[in-house]
Amino acid sequence: MQFKRLISACLALTAIPTLALADSSTRVALIPGGPHPYFAAWEQAGADAAAKFGLGAADYKVPQKWELGLQNQMLESLVTQGYNAFLIFPGDPVGTVAIANELADTGAPVMALAGCLKDPSDAVFCMGTDTGNSAYLGTKELLKELGAGAKIAHFTGFLVDPNTQLRIDAVNKAAEEGGAEVIQVIADIDAPEPAEEKINAYLAAHAADVDGIITTAWVPAVVASSALRKIGDKRIKMVGIDHDEVVLKAIKDGFVHGTMLQNPYGQGYIGSYAADRLRSGCTVKADAPFKSNALTDKFIDSGTVFAGVNDVDDYVGSMQSITNTLFADFESTYLDCK
Amino acid sequence: MSRRFWETDWFGPLMVVVVAVAVVSILNPSFLSPFNIQVLLLAIAVNAMIAFSQMIIIAIGQMNLSVGAIGGLSAIAFAGMMEVWGIPWPIAAILALALGVLAGVANGVLVALTGISAFVITLASLSVYKGVNLGITEAQPFYKIPDVVKGLGNDTFLHPLPWLIIPCVLAALLLWYLLNRLPLGRSILAVGGNEHAAELSGISVRRVVIVAHAISGLLAASAGIMLVGRLQLGQPTIGDDWLILSFAAPVIGGAILSGGHVSVAGTLLGVAIVAIFTQVLVLFNIDPFLVQVVLGVLILWAVGVNRFREVRALKHSAQVAS
Asked: So where are chain A's domains?
């Protein structure tokens, strides 16, 4: 399984030297917005960070559904279970601020991971893929293949995901700059059934009208890869996202041009480390070189990279390289530890 | 006295389907292309099983909120048994169906024995089944699906008719036969119509409730297994968004939510309406934010039509009585 390859290769990251003594009372909870394969790497990342840095725990806890209320209940329950550091994918960029502030009031470091909270919030920072940049770069890669005048379709994720609108805007911007036209956006399809139904319906009616497809969410990338394989159309070029086996195989077989890799493992691993350092007395540097996005001015890009047919076999190496680079000077760049 | 055909539950939805197909195919001729018909039939085949799974529970005047969770659990069990244990797909399918029946029976027994509302019981079991699903998969899909299963989920036996339409048609025929020709079916409708009266007439309400939930579990599991073939992987999120559709299609098809009256043909047409509208929103590039709104409006329209018919029937009865 590709995912297991990823995990075993990521274990190599634990060879990175520990920079300071850890606090074994640190209990980190890594909470996604709901069940989704993207976040699965957080579990191993937390376990590796706990083992490497001597944390009390760094546990991955998944709300059963993508519902803000469920995520909030889980977070409250985790406080009573003794967790004292929280890495959260916000169920809603504004709606999650209140619970994040409550958690921070208990003295726990809170970080937004993979998606950001809307400023102002008590989250120390947000670390994730610069989703807009990833969508922008992916579209640029697609347009390198298609050229100006191309007509592209954009398949993306949940409308409640704070990243979805950023992705739609970024794809439109890249297309405009490249002289291409986004002829259709199909959103809210980051679940298998609607993705299958809508992507296939779209291709059935419009395959001849479209030159390229950009997908900026996991499930649409998987379903569109399968759909292109099914109709056997290699004329339509597609750039996907993430490292699902189906997408990687479609790249190898020539049905997909490439994919934009993200770095969920790095987010979980470095986030757990940072949480512990903050509990051990470090503070966030006042002049830390955070980036800005539409939601926050305290953003750290966990990295993204394009993987085409020549890079697929070593995609794990590409992701490792991003994490290593970010981790190597994370403390000196973002934290003040006396 | 038999009703005139335009007074049947399925006539209204049938007219909507006919008009929608005619209008859409004039505006966009590719709507009737063989590939699009295949895509449409694939969607209808799976969604009909989901809708039937809820319909049989609506027939006894209850709700099953765990339809998606049962379908999802059976789907990942089917895919997982093939990938992890190397079980041949027909045996894995039978075991996954049995799991669905078991989950349904558990719902039915809890509802029948405790007297607690099915809404509450299935809300709780939804959480249990989904939790087991996530515990097994850790939100990771199972990928190693045999080619024959992938083929059954995507290929046609007579272009553009997909293989998946066969279990759907079989289920529709069997459900129609059950509800219209067998004593058990009449008991199901009697319990839904008036539970107390059904009990007084000698029907074992508990048995009927348990059987209805077992059938619901079987149908939900079938939908889950069919989706594994169609998606070509065992996604843990299968079933997560079945709930609205599972109620929408039977209601559009004339089912009365308080029980005692459902229509197999109407439900099938309700599924077709939802599938056609879903496609139309894609084909005509409707703003994605409007998709949920349109589905909600469709349900409101169907409930409104049902209410209008109920009121008209009541008035008619009152006139006859006076």
From this structure: 2-129+263-303+326-336, 131-261
List CB contacts (< 8 A) between A43 and chain B: 138
Q: What is the complex's ipTM, to 2 decimals?
A: 0.76
What SS3 class is residue A237? strand
What does each C-alpha distance from A274 to A20, A65, A324, B80 come to in angstroms? 11, 28, 15, 36
Residue A192: which of B43, B237, B292 has the nearest Cβ? Answer: B237
* Superfamily for the A2-129+263-303+326-336 domain: Response regulator (3.40.50.2300)
Percent of chain B with pLDDT over 70: 96
Q: Which residue in A has a C-alpha nearest to residue B46's C-alpha? A: A193
**A72 contacts: CB under 8 Å, gap ≥ 6:** A91, A96, A99
Q: Pick from B38, B231, B242: which is nearest to A196 by CB?
A: B231
How wide is the angle at C-alpha B321 spanned by C-alphas B315 and B322, nearest 5°?
90
Q: What is the pTM of this model?
A: 0.77
Fold classification of B9-321 is: ABC transporter involved in vitamin B12 uptake, BtuC (1.10.3470)
Q: In this predicted model, what pLDDT tens digit does every residue of A100-158 receive, in sequence order?
A: 999 999 999 999 999 899 999 999 999 998 888 999 999 999 999 999 999 999 999 88
Query: What's the CA gap between A91 and A132, in Å, rounded?
Result: 18
**Can you say how many angstroms the Cα of residue A6 is from the centroid of all Cα atoms in its chain?**
15
A131-261 CATH choice from 3.30.70.1140, 3.40.50.2300, 3.40.50.150, 1.10.10.10: 3.40.50.2300
pLDDT at A313: 85
- Per DSSP, B162 falls in state E
Q: How far is CA A85 from the centre of its chain?
A: 20
CA distance A155 to chain B (A): 11
Q: pLDDT at position A19, please?
A: 44
Domain A2-129+263-303+326-336 and domain A131-261 have a common topology:
yes
Give the torsion through C-alpha atoms of A70, A223, B140, A267, to 10 deg: -70
Model confidence pLDDT, tens digit, residues A54-108: 999 999 998 877 888 889 999 999 999 999 999 999 988 888 999 999 999 999 9
Here the tokens at position A313 are: 């076999």
Contact residues, chain B, for A36 at CB < 8 Å: 139, 237
Which residue among B154, B227, B282 places its CB closest to the CB of A201? B282
Distance from CA of A226 to the nearest CA of B (A): 8
DSSP A312: G
